[in-house]
Amino acid sequence: MPIKVSNESPEALVESFQSSSIKPSFVVVYASLTDGRSWCGDCRAAEPLVNAKFADRTDVLKVVYAGQRDEWRKADNQWKKAPFSVTNLPTLIKVTNDEWEQLVEEDVYDQKKLDAFVGEQS
Asked: What does pTM read for this prediction?
């Protein structure tokens, strides 16, 4: 399964996208876990659909966590800064040739929107 939880900093992720020979690159930003579950209901709803979508793909999906509620709500949260510019959780980001696109919040767990955003297996 090409889903990998990443502890990379935002800067390191950007660098990995720029050096990646696999295009497009994907990262999903979820709320952090508490007792094995995300504190964010939308993240909990999206996770099984995202996992299923990437289960049989060659694309690698990196999973990062934006923090607990108090960390996420801070204006200086590292994932709120460019180029990620995450405003709501979850956010699925696709990077293709320096073009950054987002699928945000309930759109991530809308199967039709998720399928259209991720596209067919390349």
From this structure: 0.93
Strands (E), the chain: 3-5, 25-30, 33-34, 37-38, 61-65, 91-96, 99-104
Q: Give the Å distances, CA to CA, from 89 to 16, 23, 98.
A: 22, 24, 22
Query: Which residues are registered as beta bridge partners of 33?
Result: 38
| Domain locations along the chain | 3-114
Q: Which of 115, 74, 75, 81 is nearest to 100 (CA)?
A: 81
Answer yes or no: CATH 3.40.30.10 is held by domain 3-114. Answer: yes
pLDDT < 70 positions in the chain:
1, 21-22, 122
- Are 13 and 62 a contacting pair, CB within 8 Å? yes
Show the tokens assigned to 73.
Answer: 């709500």
